[in-house]
């Protein structure tokens, strides 16, 4: 019996090589394909850029350029391992979730400010 079957492990696509990731970032203009964050606008923006697997690597997504997009880390984390029909469906989910998180953050900050006043 294979060890992978015994432990429920699955083979993942290999991690991206640096050069391949840079090609994706260049192709996408160094902009997050979910929220539009521009990595060329500031050094801080460039620090949070990554490459996202549209169909997650953890779920057998391939290292093919058609399955890869530039994404800021917050959007990449929000999307997570969810599977979507296409990039547009994923983008819609990510933007809606970002809006929800922003409202929660604003409420929390408002409470904190009123408590300290």
List the helices and strands and how they pair.
Blueprint: H1 3-7, H2 18-27, H3 43-47, E1 49-53, E2 68-72, H4 73-79, H5 87-116
Antiparallel strand pairs: 1-2
Description:
- It is a single chain.
- This protein is mainly alpha-helical and 117 residues long.
- The chain has one domain (13-116): DNA Binding (I), subunit A, CATH 1.10.30.
- It contains five helices and two strands, in the order αααββαα.
- A two-stranded antiparallel sheet has the order 1-2.
- The radius of gyration is 18 Å and the shape is globular.
- The protein starts with a helix and ends with a helix.
Average residue-wise pLDDT:
89
Q: What is the subunit organization of this protein?
A: single chain
The order of strands across the largest sheet is: 1-2
Major sheet description: 2 strands, antiparallel
Q: Approximately how much helix is present in the residues?
A: 40-55%
Number of helices: 5
Q: Which value, in Å, is the CA radius of gyration? A: 18 Å
Q: Which CATH first-tier class would you pick?
A: Mainly Alpha
Q: Count structural domains.
A: 1
Number of E-state strands: 2
- Distance between termini? 65 Å
Q: Which CATH-level-2 architecture? A: Orthogonal Bundle
Shape: globular
Low-confidence stretches: 1-7
Structural class: mainly alpha
CATH topology: DNA Binding (I), subunit A
Proportion of strand residues? 5-15%
The helix/strand order is HHHEEHH
């Amino acid at each position: 019996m294979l060890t992978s079957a015994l432990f429920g492990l699955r083979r993942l696509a290999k991690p991206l090589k640096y050069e391949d990731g840079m090609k994706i970032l260049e192709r996408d203009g160094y902009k997050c394909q979910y929220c539009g964050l521009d990595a060329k606008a500031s050094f801080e923006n460039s620090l949070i850029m990554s490459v996202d697997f549209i169909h997650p690597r953890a779920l057998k997504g391939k290292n093919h350029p058609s399955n890869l997009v530039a994404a800021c880390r917050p959007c990449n984390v929000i999307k997570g391992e969810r599977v979507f029909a296409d990039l547009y469906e994923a983008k819609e989910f990510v933007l809606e979730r970002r809006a929800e998180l922003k409202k929660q953050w604003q409420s929390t900050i408002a409470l904190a400010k009123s408590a300290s006043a």
